[in-house]
Amino acid sequence: MSLDDLHFAHLNALDIYQSQIQQLSKDLSNGFLALAAANVAAESARGAPYGREMYEQKPMTATRGVRISEKSGSDTNELVWEDHELQSEPNGPQEVPSQKPIEQEGLRRRRGKDGDGGSDDVPRGTSEDNDADADEDKTTDKPTEAAIPQKKSPLILFHPLPPPALRVAGTAFSTAIKTLPELASTLHNLRVLANQIEAMCATSTEKYIYKLLTEPPAWPIELSQLDQSSGYIHLCTEQQALGVMTRFMGGFKELWALKIPVERLGEKDLRWELVDDVDGERFPHLYGELKEQDVESAGKVERDQEGQWRWGEVKWE
């Protein structure tokens, strides 16, 4: 693919990205506006906005319904619609009146029928009987479990249908969710095309790139800890070499440099990427293996008497 083709593909991807951003912004704004309108209507009708924690347990039933049945005496599949009023559900949740606890048999009468201070006519029950009666009294105070809805269901809240504004909000948010994966794919495509354009532009201007080593080169080459942690091989151009040696390799007295023609790395994954420590400058990074046949020559870099690197005096072998 030529440089013009890469630029054309990049512009096409950029146009798709802008259209997806506009669509996502439109869907999100419509969704939040519709949700706000639904909350305003809900607060006036229910006193609370919509939310998973705001589902009510009381049923919101419809007042009228429609019966659909086949027309009798007709050969065609005609349907008959009958409008009618709805009655309250007989099996709906009903309040269970609380029952007063039954007095214990052993404590029912402390006195005789005549009201005198005589002893009890009925003997007191044992402690085990009293505990059993107390447990029975506790169960009679509580309504049955079937009468209390244990789970909050949005189907109960939105019966028979959710409000129109809430349906519009749900549709807008669903469309926005579908746009997000497409937007992520477009962003990845833009990054790939940008790296290819940078690499092709650098190839047209730079003929050689360099790999700096702290030890004499040996094949297969041993990667530094920085290369292993980064996941790629750090390279540099001739203009960047002196700055890299001064900044990152100041503690060494001698270094070795590998001279690599850029054209030999054409089929490999060579990317020109920005570095966080250097603003606005891209460095070549090789995502792959550096082989001996990729290197044209190697040279030793030493310091002068003043401690400066003598890059211009390197003898390439």
UniProtKB/TrEMBL annotation:
Protein name, entry field: Vacuolar ATPase assembly protein VMA22
GO annotation terms (biological process): vacuolar proton-transporting V-type ATPase complex assembly
PANTHER family in the cross-refs: COILED-COIL DOMAIN-CONTAINING PROTEIN 115
Any one GO CC term of the record: Vma12-Vma22 assembly complex
GO molecular function, one term: unfolded protein binding
SUPFAM superfamilies per the UniProt record, alphabetical: ADP-ribosylation (SSF56399)
Name of one Pfam family that matches: Vma22_CCDC115
Gene3D superfamilies in the record: Protein of unknown function DUF952
Region (Disordered): 52-151
Domain of life: Eukaryota
Biased composition (Basic and acidic residues): 102-127
Lineage, opening ranks: Eukaryota, Fungi, Dikarya, Ascomycota, Pezizomycotina
